[in-house]
Amino acid sequence: MPSPSDFETWWQANRKRLLDADEEYQKTLESYKLKSGADWLLFAIPVVVAIVVLDWSPFKGEFLNWALGALAAIAAFVGCVAFKAHTSGYRSLGDIEADVKRKAQEEYEKR
């Protein structure tokens, strides 16, 4: 019986090929691409948020204003990506990869 470390070595060598062959993984990966105006709008929102924060910022120092604007833009970007992921209707790539890995391990152990 192969050891778990043997499978992990095999998995690292074949991971990309197995994931590229999985239809659900490819559909989910494709869903992350910017295809519509709404997708582009989700990535414009962080810019608008940063501009609003820079205009509103209570700090006197310019560096602190820019730092606050950058943090706001990053937080807005993460929020937009999370929103898109939750509304896309697809499972997460991590969940799909775990399933592919589990199936591959079952096949590996049969050999």
Descriptive report:
This protein has 111 residues and is mainly α. It starts with a helix and ends with a helix. The chain has helices spanning 4-21, 23-31, 37-56, 62-87, 93-110.
Summarize this, please?
The chain is mainly α. Helices cover 82% and strands 0% of the residues.
Question: Notable features of this structure?
Answer:
111 residues, mainly alpha, 5 helices, 82% helix
> Span from first to last CA?
9 Å
Q: Low-confidence segments, ≥5 residues, pLDDT <50?
A: none
Mean pLDDT: 88
Question: Radius of gyration from the CA trace?
Answer: 21 Å
Number of strands: 0
The helix content, as a percent range, equals over 70%
What is the 3D form?
elongated
| Order of helix and strand elements from N to C terminus | HHHHH
Chart the SSEs and their pairings.
Blueprint: H1 4-21, H2 23-31, H3 37-56, H4 62-87, H5 93-110
